[in-house]
């Protein structure tokens, strides 16, 4: 009932406006009779709405169009309210009724058609919505709105090639660039090719992604992964090195393959230099712990522990603390070992229950890296968590 009263309150000023406009456009005698007829039908329709007799309400409002074709705006307002409160079927019925009017002007028909497209989107009828927006994209007044909806459709259906074409058209008149989105669409195509075991085709799409957005760390990561899979370790290292300048926060995603690539080339010195460069550029705790592992191999547990302790003083980290505890357990006496083991278990559980990734735009947390945030749908905004509980 509250929502129906909201509709009534919203439509009352519109009814007054249409009655006032009719009165100002006609002679006094004609205006009086027309205004009474319009008002009567309007309040009859409202009465049907309040009594939840929606079919009769729609028929009554359709009748208003016969008295005043421009009253379509009032009818469309009812339809929008239906959609907003989740009654999409009713909204669709209203907009279909409007479009069916043979006397309707082209301008109002396209307005109603756009709203019907929104209805279909809300109902999940993406194929019907696509057909409408493809028609309206040729109309200058509805082009941008239609392109935006088509972009949403092609992302939901994972039709990345169409998404790229629509994005390129959309950004011609857009106030901001869509290069980030387009680059990710090319990355999606690259990953599809990798799934089909077509690495050369995948590299082609990676190249296009980097042409569109040279700072696309995802494309660089895929490039390095492909080279690593092909056993081209020098090329893999070269690609992964690009992450240090592009987005060092993403580097932990590749640290195991980076380490393996250097070891495959028997280049431990090169690995040390790579890690030192990454740490100097703000590489997280995963990079620091990899470096500590190399110190351990060359100089032992004590030296590795001292290095981790130094880093923890500057960059506190639960992951770093856990590694330090593990090193101390190996050399602890029988008195200290039980306490260290208990502390290790507590810290491990603390880490296990913590999210690993965070969306910098909407705050969505997860244990999985999503290139498109499942919550706000932005691309490239989900990153490894930084600070004491993350990197």
UniProtKB/TrEMBL annotation:
Record's GO cellular component terms: cytoplasmic side of plasma membrane
Annotated TM spans: none
Major subcellular location class: membrane
Domain LapB rubredoxin metal binding intervals: 357-384
Compartment(s) of residence: Cell inner membrane
One GO term (biological process): lipopolysaccharide metabolic process
Membrane topology annotation: Single-pass membrane protein
Recorded GO MF terms: iron ion binding
InterPro entries according to UniProt: LapB, Rubredoxin_2, TPR-like_helical_dom_sf
Family per similarity comment: Belongs to the LapB family.
Known role: Modulates cellular lipopolysaccharide (LPS) levels by regulating LpxC, which is involved in lipid A biosynthesis. May act by modulating the proteolytic activity of FtsH towards LpxC. May also coordinate assembly of proteins involved in LPS synthesis at the plasma membrane.
Protein name: Lipopolysaccharide assembly protein B
Organism: Aliikangiella marina
Protein's gene: lapB
């Amino acid at each position: 009932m509250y929502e129906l009263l909201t509709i009534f309150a919203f439509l009352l000023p519109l009814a007054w406006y249409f009655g006032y406009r009719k009165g100002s456009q006609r002679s006094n005698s004609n205006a009086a009779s027309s205004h009474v007829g319009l008002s009567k039908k309007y309040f009859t329709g409202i009465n049907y709405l309040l009594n939840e007799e929606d079919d009769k309400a729609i028929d009554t409002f359709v009748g208003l169009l016969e008295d005043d074709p421009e009253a379509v705006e009032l009818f469309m307002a009812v339809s929008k309210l239906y959609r907003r409160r989740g009654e999409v079927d009713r909204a669709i019925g209203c907009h279909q009724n409007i479009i069916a009017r043979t006397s309707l002007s082209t301008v109002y028909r396209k307005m109603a058609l756009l709203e019907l497209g929104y209805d279909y989107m809300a109902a999940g009828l993406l194929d019907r919505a696509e057909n409408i927006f493809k028609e309206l994209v040729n109309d200058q007044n509805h082009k941008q709105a239609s392109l935006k909806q088509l972009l949403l459709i092609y992302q939901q259906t994972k039709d990345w090639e169409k998404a790229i074409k629509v994005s390129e058209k959309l950004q011609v008149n857009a106030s901001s660039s869509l290069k980030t989105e387009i680059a990710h669409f090319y990355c999606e195509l690259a990953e599809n090719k990798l799934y089909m075991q077509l690495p050369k085709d995948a590299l082609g799409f990676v190249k296009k992604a980097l042409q569109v957005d040279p700072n696309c760390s995802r494309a660089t990561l895929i490039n390095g992964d492909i080279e690593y899979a092909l056993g081209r370790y020098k090329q893999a290292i070269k690609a992964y090195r690009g992450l240090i300048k592009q987005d060092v926060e993403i580097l932990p995603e590749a640290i195991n393959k980076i380490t393996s690539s250097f070891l495959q080339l028997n280049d431990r010195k090169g690995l040390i230099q790579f890690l030192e460069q990454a740490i100097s550029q703000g590489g997280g705790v995963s990079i620091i712990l990899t470096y500590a592992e190399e110190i351990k191999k060359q100089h032992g547990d004590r030296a590795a522990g001292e290095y981790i302790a130094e880093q923890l003083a500057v960059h506190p980290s639960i992951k770093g603390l856990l590694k330090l505890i593990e090193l101390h357990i190996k050399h602890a006496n029988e008195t200290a070992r039980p306490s260290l083991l208990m502390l290790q278990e507590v810290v491990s559980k603390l880490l296990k229950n913590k999210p690993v990734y965070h969306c910098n735009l909407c705050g969505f947390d997860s244990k999985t890296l999503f290139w498109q945030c499942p919550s706000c749908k932005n691309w490239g905004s989900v990153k490894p968590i930084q600070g004491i509980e993350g990197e």
